[in-house]
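> call design_seq(struct)
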């Protein structure tokens, strides 16, 4: 991503690195393109923004939060749960704006407080990011947070501490956080985000007002991307590829390398379908050494085979890779519903194995042995066929 940094590394974070513009914008605030201000403005708002809440999707959460804040019901702790890049941190930042905005229709997005929060310069709003080994929140960071929480706000109504990925906090840190939640200073609001809430101590979860964020609908995402100048075919593709994660769509809108990487991964996939066992095992070895690429490929392969299954079932409206319809249709014509289903089941098993820390190379080898062979998958002029291995 290029250009402005809505959130600088300091003074926003307590220890470690700040969230950074990529993460902030990537989670759906969507003010990374156009305009001259770092602050989200009404003019740049998503199609579904509710009265200045510049959040794409998640209408029910925004509506409920707005209702409660309007009637003076401010909780001392919130927990936004949901998959990565679905917009949790963006929502947390917008809530921090709403809590400290100087205008009646909070958050206005343009008052001094909203602008400073958006640019990461508000002294009363801090993002506490995990640092060091595993980038998990450490006990020292929570102690520092506790000290700062005991101070009165410098200029806002509330001191707001946003803790992204709270589920990755060390047990010590999570238990220490509980002390703040048990006796919260009246001027402090803690906003936690988490993907796996079950990893948090139940005593922490029960003291927070909890909101589960759901994937943003494709149509909402498409409209939001088009509003930011993305041409329709690309908006349709990004909206589908994102799986409802607005942060991913915004990142892919800004960073062309993400789609380029996908193209390379798709080429790799089709090459492997025609490859012999030696080449497949060589790929398994590479995956065993690169966990990030392994996760990326599994995700891509799952969506690809889901598309094939959809086409086998004559449901092209369910296809994710809409720009690859020609290749998918050719492959689907030579692939049975059962074959597609079997690969999806094998992928599911591989995911479970990788999560349980089975040797990644072995897991991939097992998967690749179950993958049907597909001669000449990329060339329509040559005879194509699936071959049971
Ligand atoms: Zn404001």
């Amino acid at each position: 991503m290029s250009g402005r940094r809505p959130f600088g590394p300091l003074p926003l974070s307590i220890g470690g690195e700040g969230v950074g513009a990529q993460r902030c914008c990537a989670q759906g605030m969507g003010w990374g393109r156009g305009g001259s201000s770092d602050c989200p403005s009404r003019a740049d708002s998503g199609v579904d923004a509710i009265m200045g809440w510049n959040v794409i999707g998640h209408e029910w959460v925004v509506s409920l939060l707005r209702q409660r804040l309007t009637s003076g019901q401010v909780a001392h702790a919130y927990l936004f749960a949901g998959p990565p890049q679905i917009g949790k941190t963006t929502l947390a930042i917008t809530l921090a704006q709403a809590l400290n905005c100087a205008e009646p229709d909070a958050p206005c997005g343009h008052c001094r407080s909203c602008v400073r929060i958006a640019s990461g310069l508000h002294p009363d709003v801090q993002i506490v990011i995990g640092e060091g080994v595993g980038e998990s929140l450490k006990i020292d960071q929570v102690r520092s947070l506790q000290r700062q929480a005991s101070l009165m706000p410098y200029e806002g109504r509330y001191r707001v501490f946003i803790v992204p990925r709270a589920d990755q906090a060390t047990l010590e840190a999570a238990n220490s956080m509980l002390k703040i939640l048990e006796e919260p200073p009246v001027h402090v609001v803690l906003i936690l985000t988490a993907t796996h809430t079950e990893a948090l101590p139940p005593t922490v979860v029960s003291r927070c007002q909890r909101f589960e964020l759901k994937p943003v609908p494709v149509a909402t995402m498409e409209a939001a991307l088009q509003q930011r100048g993305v041409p329709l075919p690309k908006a349709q593709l990004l909206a589908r590829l994102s799986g409802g994660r607005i942060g991913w769509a915004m990142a892919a809108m800004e960073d062309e390398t993400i789609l380029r990487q996908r193209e390379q991964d798709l080429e790799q996939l089709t090459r492997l379908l025609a490859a012999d066992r030696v080449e497949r095992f060589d790929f398994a070895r590479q995956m065993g050494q690169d966990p990030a690429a392994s996760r990326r490929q599994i995700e891509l392969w799952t969506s690809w085979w889901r598309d094939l299954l959809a086409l086998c079932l004559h449901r092209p409206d369910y296809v994710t890779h809409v720009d690859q319809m020609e290749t998918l249709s050719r492959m689907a014509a030579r692939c049975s519903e059962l074959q597609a289903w079997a690969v999806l089941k094998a992928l599911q098993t591989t995911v479970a194995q990788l999560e349980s820390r089975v040797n990644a190379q072995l897991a991939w080898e097992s998967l690749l042995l179950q993958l049907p062979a597909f001669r000449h998958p990329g060339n329509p002029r040559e005879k194509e066929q699936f071959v049971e291995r």
